[in-house]
Amino acid sequence: MVICISDIDLALDMDEFWVFGYGSLMWNPGFVYVERVEAQIFGYRRSLCVRSWVHRGTQEKPGLVLGLDRGGSCRGMAFRVTPDRTPEVLGYLRERELVTNVYLERSLPLWLAGGRRAKAVAYVVDRAHPQYAGALDAAHAAEVVGTAIGQSGPNDAYLFNTLTHLKEMGIRDRWLESVANDVTRMRAGVHRPEGLPRQA
Known about the structure:
It is a single chain. The chain is of the alpha+beta class. It has a single domain (7-186), classed as Gamma-glutamyl cyclotransferase-like (Hypothetical upf0131 protein ytfp, Roll). The chain has 5 helices and 7 strands, in the order αβββαββαββαα. Strand 4 (103-112) and strand 5 form a beta hairpin. It is globular.
């Protein structure tokens, strides 16, 4: 079942309707906004925790794509939308993010660059959904990402593209970087050094 924020909740502060992006929404929002600012949420982290059965993998050999999973914190981008565009943007987001119901729509507090606080719509992973891959460590995630291929191409291309965009925005994600380093080592046939921690 899709769990959505009620229209009552959305109407509470319509002049401050924000959307939080932690993956492709950051560089490809697909909707009109009036302000974009770096933001951080606490209690959730960016993670390769969603099995991809089509675009970056198959049913037989799933890939991994990003989800917002419980624990830690996440730096991303927040987009402010004007009240007249809120219903249109919300409808677009639901069509984009809730296709297989692996994500749940939530209203989460966030801290905006400059010290402001706000609440934003965000899409978090549903841990009860069959596509939830669990909290993999970096080494295990790399084993999946380094070999999976889907209709949109190799899974590792998705990972490296994500890191490129994050770097362009001045955002570091050390866990994703660790996954990418392990994938690079796999490509080169180099084993992970003994004693190197497998980042969770």
